[in-house]
Amino acid sequence: MKKILFTILMASSLVAIHSCGRDFEEINTDTSKILNPSVGSLLAPVQLEMSTYNYKRANDYTFDVMQSALDFPNEGNTYSRYYLTEASGTGFWNTSYKWLKQVRDMRIAAEKENDKNYLAIAKVMNAWIYSNLTDAFGDIPFSEALKMEEGIMKPKFDKQKDIYTALLNDLKEANSLFDTTKKLSEIDLFYNANNSNDGILQWKKFCNSLSLRLLTRSLNKNGDLNVHVRIQEIVNNPTVYPLFTSNTDSAVLSLSGIAPYLPPVARPQDFTTGRAAGEFFIDEMKKNNDPRMSMFFSTAKDLATNTSIGYKGAPSGYQLGTVFSYQPSNLNQNLAKAPMKILLMTYSELQFILAELSFKNIIGGNTETYYKNGVTSIIEQWGAVVPANYFTNTNVAYNQSLERIMLQKYLSLFFVDHQQWYEFNRTGLPMLPNNGGLMNDGKMPKRFMYPPNAKVMNPENYQNAAQAIGGDNINTKLWWQQ
Questions:
Q1: How far apart are CA 189 and CA 205, in angstroms?
Q2: Would you kindly state where each structural domain of the chain is located, as residue ranges?
Q3: Confidence (pTM)
């Protein structure tokens, strides 16, 4: 019976195909697929998807390991206790490579269309995504990655030093490619460069500011990359290498709340369910009388009297069995509501970079001025007002120390993908407390372990990479951490 039915169905299909006058190849062609997309159409999806995913990474991972927030109450294995598995970085790995493929397609299309601005932007986007990826894992597929059409199914893992070298060279080339007399042909979600030539200049500023982020991250490897000279080349030539000059230059994604520009967290209540604000982060903001406090956090409540006790967080990695007499502050649900802005790299971050470089006598300029600009601009970036006497507070005033610079930079990087984590692993600052319940011997994880798919699908190159970095575990130091 099944054989008869199958014969009837096949016969019917063949009659239908013949009657329509269409051949088998035509029937099996996916007409919904855009085979030759314009170069401009490739940019906005990458901007939207990678930015919103990085928002989720800050929310799901960085908040916890960097004591901005924590699962609460919890007695189990969590990121806030430095518990990571081989799956902890899997989503970040897969999502990054997915959109890096589209960035590669954009670069190829830009070269084909001889569009220098899109070619430059492709190089900037590539450097932004790849730098975050290698800073999370170390050695990763790079030079042979995303080349399945060339028959490379099992790409080698490149050395992080070589990746940094290539990315910095690409950013330098991108800076020379930008044509500020021309606009983009299609939508640009960061700088609206399809409507204004000024947007191309802002892309150029992002390019060079990103270069300084990478160069500062690799300060310990000055001998490997000639880092100091390259920093000075950028900072001392603002006409050739323009940098962010105000908050309007910050790389930011604005989400209106109207599809497709929806918040990354679908329901605001999910943003605060089962969590608390971190004690360390809140205490540092309280010392500053930081005007962003109410924007970031709710107030705590005494459980006995059901009354507000102001802003009070829970200690990250608290000792198992701790009993709390209060309901800690939580994150403000407005952080998950549209309209909203997702921060990718801010003018404030650049100012803290310049403050550190000046402090270390790598560049000129006044360290205190850079520092104050960094503190002031991030408060204003969030829409708050800096009090007139803000820097008379001894907890905010510049005190001639790198610790003060890095503490305020830490606060400024709130909600910027993994940047707090990367900077802590570079400098060990700010000094985060061990509240008695941390795992991993109380040591901050240095990296993610490689995801399972890399081990299963590319075992030989995975083994080579794991051996080269000194072992695939969360305590292995990356190249720039050594």
A1: 16
A2: 39-264+337-481
A3: 0.93
